UniProtKB/TrEMBL annotation:
Descriptive protein name: TIGR02281 family clan AA aspartic protease
A single MF term (Gene Ontology): peptidase activity
Signal peptide coordinates: 1-19
EC code: 3.4.23.-
PROSITE patterns: ASP_PROT_RETROV (PS50175)
Keyword field: Hydrolase, Protease, Signal
GO biological process, one term: proteolysis
All residue ranges annotated as the Peptidase A2 domain in the record: 87-165
CDD domains: retropepsin_like_bacteria (cd05483)
InterPro entries given in the database record: Clan_AA_Asp_peptidase_C, Peptidase_A2_cat, Peptidase_aspartic_dom_sf, Retropepsin-like_bacterial
Species of the source: Sphingomonas daechungensis
Length: 182
């Protein structure tokens, strides 16, 4: 009797797991038209590449130069202002966007859900989970971008500054142990 009960629970659990993976359905039984996480990221990247973001620089001639020193770990870091809050980030020229740790997102005043179930990318260890957000402002030196899409990573420890902001600069050069943003 006990064995039959455990088998019943096992089958019921498997059935429930299958149903939860089926996705939401509309009243007619068709799949909902809500885009998945990969489609959202693709849309954000397309928006970044096509539209760009409003740059607030008073005059091009007055644009300052931001110089970053390579750190002992081989990376470049910057102190940027996100939503007018200073955040220490890793400058990642190979990243398409901005990724924030949960702690940095909280500092910047971003509300995130307790459980981040959206798959926002894939890493060496498998699916990367997080949440899509839009930053009011991102500032480094005299360059400011508004309404910049970003991702808050569920397990990330360090925030990354990628191309969705770096493209505000005309040039990004690495010369020896210096990164120069103009």
């Amino acid at each position: 009797m006990v064995r039959a009960y455990f088998i019943f629970l096992l089958v019921a659990g498997m059935f429930g797991a299958l149903l939860s993976n089926c996705g939401s359905r509309t009243a007619t039984g068709a799949s909902s038209s809500e885009p998945n996480a990969f489609e959202k990221e693709k849309a954000y990247q397309a928006e970044v590449l096509q539209k760009g973001y409003e740059v607030n620089d008073d005059s091009y001639a007055g644009q300052d130069v931001v110089e970053l020193e390579r750190q002992p770990d081989g990376h470049f870091y910057a102190d940027v202002e996100i939503n007018n809050i200073p955040i220490h980030v890793l400058v990642d020229t190979g990243a398409s966007g901005i990724a924030l740790s949960r702690d940095d997102a909280r500092k910047a005043g971003l509300a995130t859900s307790i459980g981040m179930y959206d798959v926002v990318g894939e890493g060496a260890g498998g699916d990367v989970k997080g949440e899509f957000v839009k930053l009011d402002t991102v500032r480094l030196g005299k360059q400011t971008a508004r309404e910049v899409p970003a991702i808050v990573l569920d397990g990330g420890q360090m925030s990354l500054l990628g191309q969705s902001f770096l493209r505000q600069f005309d040039t990004v050069e690495i010369k020896g142990d210096k990164m120069v943003l103009r």
